[in-house]
Specification:
alpha+beta; nine-stranded antiparallel β-sheet; three-stranded mixed β-sheet
């Protein structure tokens, strides 16, 4: 029998942030593909679209006019999944039927007045403006007594369910800590209690020793494909210094954060020379009044594209019924991303 090789043979990897295992099947990347082919997003968009409800001066679905904003623009989501004024209510029938009322706030952040730009096409200065808004929103919403978690995220591309191509993200802030951040809280607290250091500080130090899965780095941030990545080109953005939330970043670190986001997302677009879809978001400490010393701020990027701009990864079947599974190794994905240029492919067109 041949000697086991992580690059050739199926194996499981452990995600210490969630306390869950996932399956890696590198041999499957060699199989022919006769499944669904997506339309690559290479559409040319105007700088201003009179029909877009997010462009400056335009009318939104609720009849309000957007201001003639020139930087970022934040407003309460007209179709928010959470509402502030929700009456108290709960259900518990023999521990099997449980429900609780959930209140919160939903907001939209327009990254730029330009309809035709995405983060990789924006300047570091412009992205820094987005980072500053994230800080302001986390401070404002997290200070509310009935908000215990603030989830900042972006869905980029129609493939990820984005309903409008104008560059924007969202914030869902709510009373209870949702599933994955709650799991990460438990895992990080357990690790901190045992080792006296944050889980992600030790993990980052390990990754920096080999740099096998590191994609790009600057003085304050590192981007890597986590050993336990489930999505094909999933990445984790980590600050070198341990901070629990984005408000603790220094002025220099905020700019470095903007720089690393731009450099990563340019690589994404360059990989298949398309506007690369993803869901991305910040994970940071709950805002429940506790210090949460075990928390280490980080940002997840979950892109679905697998083989090309037209072939995506589907989380179905085994993934829905058993556990996460991927076909290419984290090491291969990191190498592909690491070798890409940092000049956006459109600059050469």
């Amino acid at each position: 029998m041949a000697e086991f090789n992580f690059n050739d043979h199926p194996h499981r990897r452990f995600n210490p942030l969630l306390g869950e295992w996932m399956l890696v099947s590198p041999q499957r990347s060699k199989r022919p593909w006769q499944g669904q082919q997506e339309e690559p997003d290479r559409a040319e968009r105007p700088a201003y679209d009179p029909t877009c409800y997010l462009c400056p001066g335009n009318v939104r679905a609720n009849g309000e006019h957007n201001p003639q904003y020139t930087g970022t623009f934040v407003f309460d989501n007209d179709f928010a999944a959470l509402q502030a004024d929700v009456p108290a209510g709960d259900l518990n029938v023999e521990g099997l039927l449980q429900a609780k009322a959930e209140s919160g706030v939903g907001r939209v952040i327009c990254f730029s007045p330009r309809h035709d730009l995405t983060l990789p096409e924006m300047s570091v200065e412009a992205i820094r403006g987005v980072v500053d808004v994230w800080v302001e929103q986390f401070q404002e919403l997290g200070a509310q007594t009935d908000i215990n978690y603030v989830q900042i995220f972006e869905n980029k591309g129609f493939m990820m369910g984005c309903s409008n191509p104008h560059p924007h993200g969202q914030i869902w802030a709510q009373r209870h800590v949702p599933g994955d951040p709650a799991k990460e809280t438990v895992q990080q607290e357990a690790y901190y209690k045992e080792h006296g250091k944050t889980l992600l500080a030790d993990y980052l130090a390990l990754e920096l020793r080999t740099k096998e899965r590191v994609v790009v780095e600057n003085d304050h941030f590192v981007v890597l494909v986590p050993f336990w990545a489930a999505w094909p080109y999933e990445t984790l953005v980590l600050p070198r210094r341990v901070v629990q939330d984005i408000t603790q970043l220094s002025d220099e670190e905020r700019t470095a954060f903007a720089d690393i986001i731009r450099r990563l997302t340019i690589r994404y677009d360059n990989l298949f020379q398309t506007s690369f879809p993803y869901s991305a978001g910040l994970h940071q400490r709950p805002t429940d009044g506790q210090e949460h010393e075990s928390w280490h701020l980080h940002m997840h990027f979950y892109p679905p594209l697998l083989r090309s701009a037209t072939v995506r990864k589907f989380m179905v079947g085994y993934e829905l019924l058993a556990e996460a599974q991927r076909d290419i190794t984290a090491e291969y994905a990191a190498q592909r991303l690491r070798e890409l240029p940092e000049v956006h492919y459109k600059a050469n067109l």
